[in-house]
């Protein structure tokens, strides 16, 4: 599923939006205030590594970055 994470530059609300095309991404509005002044965030992902018997179910974070680019 092409779900992207965005942050509103006006009210700093972080939200997700389903976007199939680049046109969908360009038309995203903040779900809280309706502003078009939003930025797409770089999201982390999970991937399966090792066997299912390993600790944590065999899933590993795709990124070690925990910050939100100054939008916390």
UniProtKB/TrEMBL annotation:
Superkingdom of the source?
Bacteria
InterPro entries in the record: Regulatory_FmdB_Zinc_ribbon
Q: Where is the Putative regulatory protein FmdB zinc ribbon domain?
A: 1-43
Composition bias type Gly residues, residue spans? 55-72
Region named Disordered = 50-72
- UniProt-listed Pfam families: Zn_ribbon_8
According to UniProt, the name of this protein is Regulatory protein, FmdB family
Source organism of this protein record: Thermodesulfatator indicus (strain DSM 15286 / JCM 11887 / CIR29812)
